Amino acid sequence: MNLFVRNIAESCSEQEVREFLQHELGHYAKSVTVHEIGTPEAYAAVELSADGPYVGEVIARQLQGKHLAGRALTASSELFDEENPPPG
Predict the structure, then answer these.
(1) CA-based, 20 to 30 A from 22: which of 29, 37, 64, 84?
(2) Residue range 60-76: mean pLDDT, rounded
(3) Residue 69 burial by Cβ neighbours in a 10 Å radius (0-12, 13-18, 19+)
C-alpha cells in the first residue's frame, strides 16, 4: 500500500523529506521515494509496511497538515485527487 505526500516546499532537499517522513511514520514507512524535488510539483511516495482496508487513509489523516519547512503537507493513499489533478 502506498501513501502520497504533496505540497512539499521547493526549498526542501530529498534527504530532509525522507528523514521527516521516516520520523513521522516510524515503522509504517517501508520506503520513501521523493519525486520532482525542488519544483512546485514535488511529492513523495511512501511504501507502507501495513496492508489492510483503509490503513493508508488513516495514516494519511494523521500526516495531513503536518508542517515541513513552513508548509502544511497534504497526504492521501491516491496519487492524485480531484483537487490536485496531474499536471499537463
Answers:
(1) 84
(2) 95
(3) middle
